[in-house]
TrEMBL record:
Gene, per the UniProt record: tatA
GO molecular function: protein transmembrane transporter activity
Organism: Nonomuraea phyllanthi
Keyword set includes Transmembrane: yes
First and last residue of the signal peptide: none
Family, similarity comment: Belongs to the TatA/E family.
Domain of life from the UniProt record: Bacteria
Protein name per UniProt: Sec-independent protein translocase protein TatA
Amino acid sequence: MNLGAPEIILILVALVLLFGANKLPALARGVGRSLRIFKAETSKLNDDDDQDKPTVVQAQAQPQPAPAPPQQIPQAAPELSAEEQARLLEEQAARLRAGAQADKRP
């Protein structure tokens, strides 16, 4: 889309009318910050995608171990504080991540 000078001037006039001249610098700062955050997050996603790509490895046929029985999720007792419940959940998440990493290894 090619915007010429008349179109840009028309857009700027509409912005001044909608937001007022005093709020335009704050609006521009907010848009700039949002764009920087968006770019940083998308670059992180691209980096994560590059790291997650598996390498091609010739695997020899090996017997698969029996699947582990599902772990029982301990029910948080009402007397546990929020910090203790959060710690338990973090430990469970770490165990699940470790199991997933072990499954990915040949």
